[in-house]
Automatic annotation (TrEMBL):
Protein name: Uncharacterized protein
Presence of the UniProt keyword Signal in the record: yes
Keywords annotated in UniProt: Signal
Residues in the signal sequence: 1-28
Amino acid sequence: MTFTRGRRILAVLLLSVLLLTTACTPKAPGRFDQVQKESSQQKRGQAVAKNATKGGEFNKFFPSPQAGYQRVYTQEKKGFAEAKLKKAGKDVALLSISDTTSTPSAAAKFSKSTKKIGGYPAVEVGNTQTAILVGKYQVKALSRDASFTASDRAAWLEKFNLAGLARLK
């Protein structure tokens, strides 16, 4: 009888030691831990340049809602502002202004442009996007519905206050 009691005590003791040692063992670093540490400590190469224009400053340059259309601001952050264009409650387009200071490659695509909208170089990106470069700012219209054509995008880009945006520094 004491022999089985001794076994139970020994089993409980060994189980306790096992649990204690595994609970106190440091966790091995995961495969993404080093990358996370490096990226969170990184000071240069950030996504948005320090001198990028605040997104709220762009709102006054967006076109006013036209008959049958509604403009709904959806995103505003440093260097970028975006608004949905709705018609009859349906999203037909996204309109945006972005500061290319943070993304020089965005501005580079306009260097070979032969098309102009509102007097500014324009590019078509696929079948759904039209963009113009106003100084250091990219103004873009993106179709969200098949009824919003390339000519609609060009017309809405001309409705932005492009002269005012060109004066923004």
